[in-house]
């Protein structure tokens, strides 16, 4: 029997209208932040969503959670279409889906104590109150490796890594099934990044969590993900199991991203051939015709600027959108 997806994203679009300073101008320009993405996430797995800054991956995460309402498309969580839900029903569904934000400095209210920050979602969803709530906050602090006695401290009294642990405890407070980790380690020191990733892996095992792990750095994504989706300029260009994608990337953009990941072995590192992408990511206001990547792709042919490549199955669990890749 086919496994049922916990999260199903179907043809999701998010366009933002461009603001204009001209009072009566007809403005039809949009930022095409997310331009028709589809994928599934299965219970207990981690899907890594990777791509350069500005490719739309964080907007995708927020649109999935309905923090931004989609322009079109569907997001099914446990079979319920979130895009059709609102009010009480959406609030109830959101309890199962939480987010860990990129910046542990900006994402915690400096005027709230740790008790208030972690306790807030439990108060909103009325899952704990009074002394039971305080006890639960202390348990969560312990779970993420912080001293429960710190409950009355303020965010500025913690280091960046500790603040991200508080953010993780807050996300866990309402016992969600899915957590969207939006670049949760990119603002942290390299020495702390592995600790936070290891904590997320341990918590996943303990609490049977499912993750969408968003990052621009493939080196960390490959350690935490079961499957990886590569995003470029609002669309997904390749999806495969983590080891398959890292050993046999088929899309030229995935190949370039992977070539930037250093090897721990100095002999292999010496032989690593870095693919340097020329030019900037094109504007999402007016994305290139045909294949979005053709303006930077060393393998581009005539067809690439004319026809958008289909997202095709190449082998079991390996999908890619490139005219030059053939089925095996
Ligand atoms: Fe490059 Fe063409 Fe493939 Fe796009 S479709 S990635 S431009 S070869």
Structure description:
- The chain is α/β, with parallel strands linked by helices.
- It has a single domain, classed as P-loop containing nucleotide triphosphate hydrolases (Rossmann fold), CATH 3.40.50.
- The chain has ten helices and twelve strands.
- The strands form two sheets. An eight-stranded mixed β-sheet has the order 6-7-8-3-9-10-12-11, sandwiched between helices.
- Strand 7, helix 6 and strand 8 form a beta-alpha-beta unit.
- It is globular.
- It starts with 6 loop residues before the first strand and ends in an 8-residue tail after the last strand.
- The mean pLDDT is 92.
- The protein binds iron/sulfur cluster.
- Iron/sulfur cluster binds next to loops.
**Total number of beta strands:** 12
Cα Rg: 21 Å
CATH topology: Rossmann fold
* Average pLDDT figure: 92
Compounds present?
iron/sulfur cluster
Overall geometry: globular
CATH architecture: 3-Layer(aba) Sandwich
What labels describe this entry?
alpha/beta; Rossmann fold; 12 strands; globular; binds iron/sulfur cluster
Write the layout of secondary structure elements.
Elements: E1 7-17, E2 30-41, E3 46-50, H1 57-64, E4 72-77, E5 80-81, H2 87-94, E6 97-100, H3 114-124, H4 130-143, H5 160-172, E7 178-182, H6 190-207, E8 210-215, H7 218-224, E9 227-232, E10 235-241, H8 242-247, H9 252-259, H10 266-271, E11 312-315, E12 318-320
Parallel strand pairs: 3-8, 3-9, 6-7, 7-8
Antiparallel strand pairs: 1-2, 1-4, 4-5, 9-10, 10-12, 11-12
Helix pairs in contact: 3-4, 3-5, 4-5, 5-6
The protein binds iron/sulfur cluster.
Iron/sulfur cluster binds at residues 251-252, 291, 293-294, 297, 299-300, 304, 309, 322-324.
């Amino acid at each position: 029997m086919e496994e049922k997806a916990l999260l199903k994203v179907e043809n999701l679009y998010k366009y933002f209208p461009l603001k204009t300073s001209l009072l009566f101008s007809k403005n039809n320009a949009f930022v095409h932040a997310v331009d028709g993405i589809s994928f599934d996430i299965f219970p207990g797995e981690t899907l890594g969503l990777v791509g350069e800054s500005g490719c739309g991956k964080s907007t995708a995460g927020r649109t999935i959670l309905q923090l931004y309402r989609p322009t079109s498309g569907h997001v099914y969580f446990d079979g319920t279409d979130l895009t059709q839900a609102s009010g009480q029903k959406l609030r109830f569904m959101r309890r199962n889906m939480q987010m860990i934000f990129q910046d542990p400095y900006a994402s915690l209210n400096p005027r709230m104590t740790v008790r208030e920050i972690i306790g807030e979602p439990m108060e909103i969803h009325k899952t704990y109150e009074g002394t039971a709530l305080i006890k639960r906050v202390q348990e969560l602090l312990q779970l993420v490796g912080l001293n429960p006695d710190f409950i009355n401290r303020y965010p500025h009294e913690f280091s960046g890594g500790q603040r991200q642990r508080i953010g993780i405890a807050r996300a866990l407070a309402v016992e969600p099934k899915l957590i969207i980790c939006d670049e949760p380690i990119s603002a942290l020191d390299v020495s702390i990044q592995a600790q936070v990733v290891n904590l997320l892996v341990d918590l996943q095992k303990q609490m049977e969590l499912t993750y969408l792990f968003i990052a621009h750095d493939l080196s960390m994504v490959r350690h935490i993900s079961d499957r990886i989706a590569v995003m470029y300029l609002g669309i997904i260009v390749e999806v495969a199991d983590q080891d398959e994608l890292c050993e046999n990337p088929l899309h030229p953009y995935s190949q370039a991203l992977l070539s930037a990941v250093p090897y721990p072995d100095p002999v292999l590192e010496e032989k690593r051939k870095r693919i340097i992408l020329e030019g900037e990511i094109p504007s999402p206001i007016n994305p290139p015709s045909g294949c979005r990547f053709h303006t930077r792709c060393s393998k581009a042919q005539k067809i690439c600027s004319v026809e958008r490549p289909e997202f095709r199955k190449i082998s079991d669990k390996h999908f890619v959108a490139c005219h030059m890749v053939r089925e095996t």
